């Protein structure tokens, strides 16, 4: 299998570190968008394979950042082949991480590439807001998940920027931020058939942040923005 991964010899950090406020310099807007594009590119590639591979457990702690802040997907232990032919989903036992898992998957065990799209929307929302998908401060409240908290803001164009990470100090394109938030809202639509395909998510992200093209050339990533794994993932 192929996917974004971090070599053991490289110095890596989890993308979840962007949500830490403990003396850590906040990651810039450009870097956050590049991370989102790297992840979208990796998922889009997996979904394009003949096996229609579903990553299944996308979350910030499974995204590794190298010294250049290039993002790599790690831990393919829960990945599985997706539906084939006219099938829209595969049925499987529910695993994954609360706050990231698509609601239809949690409720029914129905897994599809659109399940990954939902999880990507959550990760994108984390990048925009600097908040965690699940937060102890929200536990037990109506707005328990980050998605529940953010939806009312993203759904209102006058309030959408209220979700943005204040540590960015306003150093980002307001137009791009609104477009990224709208994309996140589409990704975590409750009905999977209304979520975009990952290839379309990637195209939208590249329009939102076109400077990524220059970084791709500098870092000499391959056409898919992925690296070959040197070992087989656990199945």
Walkthrough of the structure:
Helix content is 36%, strand content 7%. The protein has one domain (2-227): Transferase(Phosphotransferase), domain 1. The chain is globular. Helix 1 (29-48) runs antiparallel to helix 3 and helix 1 packs antiparallel against helix 6 (198-208). It contains seven helices and seven strands, in the order ββαβββαβαααααβ. The strands form three sheets. The chain has a three-stranded antiparallel sheet with strand order 2-3-4. It is mainly alpha-helical and 235 residues long. 40% of the residues are buried.
Oligomer status? single chain
Taking the alpha carbons of the first and last residues, their distance comes to 11 Å
Choose one word for the global shape.
globular
Question: If helices are DSSP runs of H or I spanning 4 or more residues, what is the number of helices?
Answer: 7
Count of domains: 1
* Rg from Cα: 17 Å
Q: Mean pLDDT, as a whole number?
A: 81
Sketch the topology as an H/E string, one letter per element. EEHEEEHEHHHHHE
CATH topology: Transferase(Phosphotransferase), domain 1
The number of strands is 7
GO molecular function, one term: protein kinase activity
Protein name: Protein kinase domain-containing protein
InterPro entries: Kinase-like_dom_sf, Plant_Ser_Thr_Prot_Kinase, Prot_kinase_dom, Ser/Thr_kinase_AS
Briefly say what this structure is.
The chain has 235 residues and is mostly helical. It contains seven helices and seven strands, in the order E-E-H-E-E-E-H-E-H-H-H-H-H-E. The strands form three sheets. The chain has a three-stranded antiparallel beta sheet. Strands 1-7 form a two-stranded antiparallel ribbon.
